[in-house]
Amino acid sequence: MKQKSKQKRGFTMIELLAVLVILGIIMVIAVPSVVSYLQGARSDYYDQLEESVKTVGQEYFSDHRSLMPRENGQIFSVNIQDLITEGYTTEILDSDGNNTCTGNVYVKRLATADFEYHACIQCGKTDAEGNQEYISTSAFCTNGTTGNNPDGECDKVKDNPTDDCFMIRIPNSFKVPQCTTVEDSAASQGISLEGIVLNNGEDIGDRVTADTTSVDYKNIGNYKVYYTYKQVLNPAGEKYNFGVTIYDDKAPSDVTITMHTDSESGDVYNCPTRENCSWTGKDVYITFTATDKSDCGTEGSGVKQFMYRYGDSGNWQSVSAVKITQDNGQNIYKATIIRNTTYDGPIQVKAIDSASTSGTGNDFEGAVTGAYLLVDKTPPSCTSSGGNPDWINSGSRILTGTCSDANSGCAGNVTKEYSTDINSTTESPGTVYDNVGNSTVCPGNQTVRIDKTKPGVSISVASQNGSYHTTTANVTVGQSDNLSGVTQMCILLNDNNVGNCSWQNYTNAAQARSTNRGYDGGSVTYYAWTKDAAGNVSNATSASYTVYRQCSTTYTNWGGWGSCSTNCGNGSQSRSGTKIDSYLSINCGSDSQSQGCSDNSGCPPPPSGGGGGGSDGGNCCWVDWNTTAHGSCTTILCVVRPPSAGGCGGTCGWGDEQLVCYSCS
Questions:
Q1: Is residue 179 a contact partner of residue 296, using CB atoms and an 8 Å limit?
Q2: What is the mean pLDDT of residues 349-374?
Q3: Is 90 exceeded by the pLDDT of residue 406?
């Protein structure tokens, strides 16, 4: 079974025409707006570009003051390509970013310190008729600049449109290297110096030769090249002209280096190489001298500074050059630096001229020249030795200062001898010197102890008892010493030979020393010496001491008194005792004493029985006052008191109011 296929249907002609009509309406409305927008954006771009270029030109002329106009109304310019070459800007492109813009920045002097700047640029592709996309349209750019008077302004006011309007088309300003003629320089740069005469903007075929006679091509400066055609003047009322800058294109000379010590006119110190150099400890005045001459013998831009460095890879430093005009009228440039610190190495220097101020892009550097320096301003170092904390009492101590110096070297070591009394911990052997006279005092850190003086000594001896001299004495030794100090002492008994000393540590306390004697009253002598830390021994000193003699001072321990030699009347009686030493308490012998006495106890009583003892007259015995019987009495019978008492048998007698009854034998 067959199926019926569907037919594809396209747009009708009417529909297509309707679409085209609508698109046309949109195009009519939108395109003018887009075109207007693009044109406005392009115009803004070039306005901003002109301002940027003008600013760059101002920076250029600020750095190159010598290229500024010097007379009111005078106009100078710099080419955009020069600004690019000298690093003031990068390549300037048109609004599409595809093509490089060309042109100039002009500076016109209005009055002293009053200038105006203009940027005249041409950008974009050039069409078949010679028109570019953009050409500056300011009045300054269209009415003429530094003598180039493109179509625009006549040499005089036209009273009638058919009047002549003469102008001369001339080159823009350009730069000429020193000692090169304008003609040669223009030819090398592809610049035609021929002036083209225009009348009402049309080339009438007349040509004007450039007048370069005012240009001194041997000397740097700004000059003008003039064009004379009938009475035609430029809008400034001058002959048509353009500026020429003669610039320095040569490097300055090699630098001559001269060196002196202490001043610029001091002793000559020249060291071309290290092998031909000697050390100095003085300040070195290093003078750089150079010239800046052109190929034709005239003065170049001049040396503005010298660049120098210490070592092959040191940092370059600068010092300003001073111009000195000599008697022959020639200029030299000099600068002096001072090296006043230690240095062992080369110095390199080169001269820098002022070419950039004459119109070239950069200053020129001369070749590097060099010399050598051996300057030692560093004192040597010193190590002190030879000290000793021990004391000596003979000979000497010698200190040594050992010198070391890494530069000019040491002139030698130093020694110092000590032989007299001294006690110091801060001694220095002296001063060391290097080979150029720098000096260092060696450290004062050495100990020197010398004591050759005997110490002093004194002695005193005292008893251990305050009342008598004991056989052991207290011996005290005194001393004096102003240096090493007494450290030992010696005490000998009855011996003044110091060789027999057994030395002991010194003490000023009393020492108990035996006399080696008994209490015999004998004398001894103690000798004493002192010794100091250095070993010096004092002279001997002595003191005598006498021991107490025993029993020379005694007291007696007495017994009782004996009976009176009589018992009736005056007699004598005695007693005995033992002598005792008053200090030693020992027996020193016996002693006795006698004295008078009176005893009436043995006398008989009086006959009447009165007072006193007695007898009854011839009896064989009697009794004393104490009722002691005397005579032949054998028995005391009784004692009756008072006498009036009775009753005692036997024979009775009187005894001092005592009735004593006794019997006889």
A1: yes
A2: 93
A3: yes
For the chain, the structural domain boundaries read 27-247, 256-375, 381-450, 456-546, 554-599, 603-665
Strands 431-433 and 132-135: unpaired
DSSP bridge pairs for 472: 514
Q: What mean pLDDT comes out for the span 97-119?
A: 86
pLDDT in tens, 184-206: 999 999 999 999 998 877 888 99
| pTM score, whole prediction | 0.57
The answer to whether residues 552 and 521 touch, using CB atoms and an 8 Å cutoff, is: yes
- What distance in Å separates the CA atoms of residue 478 and residue 483, rounded to the nearest whole number? 16
Q: Please indicate whether the domains covering 256-375 and 456-546 agree at the CATH topology level.
A: yes
Cα gap 247→183, rounded to integer Å: 15
Please give the CATH architecture assigned to the domain spanning 456-546. Answer: Sandwich (2.60)
Helix (H) or strand (E) holding 32: helix 13-63
Q: Write the CB contacts of 518 (distance below 8 Å, at least 6 apart in sequence).
A: 471, 547, 550
For 529-575, the three-class secondary structure string (H helix, E strand, C coil) is EEEECCCCECCCEEEEEECCECCCCEEEEECCCCCCCCCCEEEEEEE
Q: Which residues of 615-638 are buried (b: 16+ CB within 10 A; e: fewer)?
A: bbeebebbbbbeebbbbebeebee
Q: CB of 377 within 8 A of CB of 342?
A: yes
What is the C-alpha separation between 54 and 118, in angstroms, rounded?
A: 6
CA 166 to chain centre: 82
- Is the pLDDT assigned to residue 253 strictly greater than 60? yes
Q: Which one is predicted more confidently, 565 or 425?
A: 425
**Residue 650 above 80 pLDDT?**
no
Fold topology of 256-375:
Immunoglobulin-like (2.60.40)
Classify residue 652 by burial, with Cβ atoms within 10 Å: 0-12, 13-18, 19+.
buried
CB–CB of 127/108 below 8 Å? no
Measured between its terminal Cα atoms, the distance across the chain in Å is 225
Buried b (16+ CB within 10 A) or exposed e, 569-597: eeeebeeeeebbbebeeeebeeeeeeeeb
- pLDDT at position 592, please? 92
Two tokens, residue 246: 């003669």
At 664 the pLDDT is 43
Q: Extract the tokens encoding 385.
A: 């030795």
Residue range 301-321, pLDDT digits in tens: 999 999 999 999 999 999 999
The helix/strand/coil state of 51 is helix
pLDDT of residue 139 exceeding 70: no
In 82-208, beta strands by DSSP E: 102-111, 114-126, 132-135, 166-169, 174-177, 195-199, 202-208
Which token pair is 79?
């080419």
- Count of CB atoms situated within 10 Å of the CB of 193: 19
String of b and e for 260-278 (b: at least 16 CB within 10 Å)?
beeeeeeeebebeeeeebe
User: Residue 170's CB: how many other CB atoms inside 10 A?
Assistant: 24
User: ω before 150 within 30° of 0 (cis)?
Assistant: no
